[in-house]
Specification:
Elements (H helix, E strand, L loop, with lengths): L5 E4 L4 H9 L4 E3 L9 H6 L7 E4 L12 H25 L2 E7 L21 H14 L4 E6 L2 E2 L5 H10 L5 E3 L3 E2 L2 E2 H13 L5 E4 L7 E2 H11 L7 E3 L1 H5 L17 H5 L7 H14 L1
Parallel strand pairs: 1-2, 1-3, 3-4, 4-5, 5-10, 6-9, 7-12
Antiparallel strand pairs: 8-11
Helix pairs in contact: 1-6, 3-4
Bound molecules: NADP nicotinamide-adenine-dinucleotide phosphate.
NADP nicotinamide-adenine-dinucleotide phosphate binds next to α1, α3 and β4.
Amino acid sequence: MTDSSIFIAGANGQLGLALQAQYPGAKTADIDMLDITDRVSVEAFDWSSIKIILNAAAFTNVDGAESSEGRIAAWQVNAMAVSNLARMSIKHDITFVHVSTDYVFDGSQDSHTEEEPLSPLSVYGQSKAAGDIIVSLIPKHYLVRTSWVIGEGKNFVRTMLSLGQQGTTPTVVADQVGRLTFTSELVRAIDHLLSSNCPFGIYNVSNGGEPASWADITREIFADADINLAVSNTTTAEYYKGKQGVAPRPLSSTLALDKILSTGFSPRDWREDLKKYVAKEVNS
Ligand SMILES: NC(=O)c1ccc[n+]([C@@H]2O[C@H](COP(=O)([O-])OP(=O)(O)OC[C@H]3O[C@@H](n4cnc5c(N)ncnc54)[C@H](OP(=O)(O)O)[C@@H]3O)[C@@H](O)[C@H]2O)c1
């Protein structure tokens, strides 16, 4: 596998940037270079030298997807665009790596296995679930389901750090539980699947360690950043009470990691990576 045979879609998102760092010689495109929702442009693209498509493109604005325009955009990027790329993968015998989410589940199970039936609650989750079904039809596919992604971009850790640095005492939901996934770890797992020729199929990937609530993660962020503020707990229902256009979220986002572990990949504890991430943010 040489970098020049890799194509990264959605290259400027959190995951896309980390994939570019891992595969500096890869061909890349974001929406301004190749809008993957445009079937004609996707078909006109020169796929002849591509052996692997890494699809990091997505409509990830979970609440935005609940509006009438957002619903269309989410389905365009998370489902229609996936079918455009899938068609190219099948036609040109390209391995397709796609990234999905725990939001394809309703969160009623404490831990989600790769076999759990789809049960999305939100428009975002529904559009991602449609993408998962499309990807399952590609002969050479890795469908990587992940949760709570943290990388270069707007994310929960940066939001909480910024609130803490301003001296704001946040009230944070304590009934949504999961594990953070640092993009460095997600990319390491994708590279492992590809370079170890793991069997094609669905793989859950997140950091390892004990699952925690957003409120507990905020406490960890503040401790790592030496911010001495108390974090108050709330419930999801209370936090969103009276707010319009909010997407329902699964209460359990924890992904079972047994399958990826069985391939010889051992994800780092999210607390270790969080400490490093916070130190870098504080010193930047
Ligand atoms: N973020 C999370 O917490 C999370 C959790 C679980 C799973 N995931 C999944 O992980 C993957 C990566 O997420 P992320 O956090 O890296 O997302 P992100 O930062 O929002 O990046 C998505 C990228 O896709 C691009 N894109 C959107 N529409 C496109 C189009 N039509 N053609 C080409 N590119 C397009 C976006 O460009 P613009 O910015 O210009 O729109 C953006 O650069 C996604 O599949 C997401 O569903 C994310």
